[in-house]
UniProtKB/TrEMBL annotation:
Keyword terms, alphabetized: Adaptive immunity, Cell adhesion, Cell membrane, Cell projection, Disulfide bond, Glycoprotein, Immunity, Immunoglobulin domain, Membrane, Repeat, Transmembrane, Transmembrane helix
Protein name according to UniProt: Activated leukocyte cell adhesion molecule b
PANTHER family the UniProt entry points to: CD166 ANTIGEN, CELL SURFACE GLYCOPROTEIN MUC18-RELATED
Lineage of origin: Eukaryota, Metazoa, Chordata, Craniata, Vertebrata
Entry membrane topology: Single-pass type I membrane protein
Amino acid sequence: CLLSGMDTVIGLYGETIEVPCNNGAPKPKDLFMTKWKYDDGDLLTQLKDQDASVIATDKYKDRVSMAENSSLLIAAATLKDEKTFTCMVVAGADISEYPVKLLIHKAPTGVEITALATELEIGKPTQLGQCRTSDANPAASITWFKNKKPLVADGKGIIISSNVKVDEATGLTTTSSTLQYTAEKGDTAALFTCGALNTLSSPVSFTVTYPTERISLHVISKGPLMEGANMTLKCKADGNPPPTSFNFHILGKVVKVENSDSYTVTDVTRESTGEYKCSIIDNAKMEDSKNITINYLDMSLSPSGKVMKSFGEGLALTLQTHASGELKVSWTKDNGKLDSSPKFDKLTYSDSGKYEVVVTMGALIKKDSFELVVEGVPVIRRVAKRRSEDGQHKVLTCEAEGSPKPTVAWSVNGTSADESPYVNGKITHKLTIVPTVNLTVVCTVSNEHGQDTRTINVSTLFEEVRMDKQDSSDEGDTTKLVVGVIVGLLLATVVVGLAYWLYMKKSKQGSWKTGEKEDGSTEESKKLEEKIEEKLEENSQKVEV
């Protein structure tokens, strides 16, 4: 008889277990019989080319069978099936036996934490809970975790004790593990679990209690603290559970607050600036303080509203500010930014407009404004004339200043009138005319404060064309007049020279000469005088305007 070494097979509790014969080797060619047996007797046999026959009469009678490859099949395995089963093979003249040790394993049915502590106190060893898993084989090993990290017993802050019980009926075990834990402040939100094999319990957390060691005062407000706002004081304590009652020291006055950690000071003023404190009612030495500044901004602008002034006057502008911090001042005129504060030593019409000042200090903003209106008697600053580009008209221009807006009137009618926009008290009016004779035109500007007039001499357009077709403006008229005067002066010089020449000639001949000679001289003189007069008349016509 040949006996081989023992193999081990692990089966699962409640399942059908296959126990191989000769470790699953092929059947020998000269096989005669295969038999399975165990210490208490035979289970079944099979002859060559026949079906297996169950021999067992005990608990295995209805639970055993043989597979095609001669393996033993055991249904509904229990812990009582943990035995050594032997496969005997008869082949030719040889008899071989192959023993197999069967082990039955079962995973625990579940893991749960019971007997939980109500709370954990810092520095105090407390039984956190008991982890239990049941119906396992072999007995389950339990591990505790904090925030998914395993806890290792150190005999001080972490003490773990385990207990295993065996069910007499099934042989399955129940394992219990108790964790004694000394909490720290960081354990407030910690999650504890326990696990066996690949099974974890549901996580649990605990309220960790610890006394207050420090408090802090906080100021809560919407935006910066300023006059008229509400200010909430909040006293925070690091204990758990935190204190529920506090004393608030409001500028020397003690206010007791119960069932709350906050106190609101309403409608604060600049006088509210100072030191504020909070403390625990049952421990006045545990307190915190804070110096609080109430921001304020005062501004006064003079003048304000609508201001009426006369042209040329001065205007005193005063801006007074009082604030708790550094200020920034900006000015605008008619929504346009000014580089500096306006000054009005001598008002002009361009100074009219709406002025706004904005004073800021951090998030605090204050504004004020005034509307300045400068009025005065209108004044004509310039009159001018020119010939139009087509040379067929004269264009007269009258520029004036005044406020309210002046009305412009001309002493003649024109073919068209054009008025510029009224800006900064200035207005320009243009009139197009066709003068047929020399004119003196009057421009008159007026408003409710008075009027002003200016004249402009305009020559006939047709005469200018006859005298000088190339002239294109009335400034040429003035040039012609000057040239005429110069020519006249030259002719006058010639006349004086001729008169002097005649006088000298007569002086040489003497008034006592014969009458014939006198008559001859007189006749020549007359002819010369007539030529001079003709020349003067001709030149006079040329320079006539």
